[in-house]
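Appendix B. Chain record.
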Amino acid sequence: MSVQLNHTIVSCRDQQRSAAFLTGILGLPAATRFARFLVVEADNGVSLDFAETAGTITPQHYAFLVGDQEFDAAFGRIRDRDLPYWADPGQSRPGVINHRDGGRGLYFEDPDGHLMEIITRPYGGGS
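Structure tokens predicted for this chain:
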């Protein structure tokens, strides 16, 4: 068997809110329950397992490779919700999408401050 990422745990204050936010923006099916986690499954079988905590949440970065149609749909939902977005992870270029490697990408924050990214081409995948 090859080595593949299977799942990661995402700390949050309210797992219902966080999972619904992500599935809503990305157009994914509703999260499912597994033990104490709410699980959001990406199309490639990798899941983000939301776990509530009362402790400090250290913001993490999660990047999603999407097709052009999925990007347009997610970007539309980001704009419909008036969510801030940036072209860069340093959040120095607000309201702009990037065109790295001939694709499109942007960054936005989830309700707990995790930096989410959608890109249409993997880094190093084009000119």
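Further analysis of this model is presented in Appendix C.
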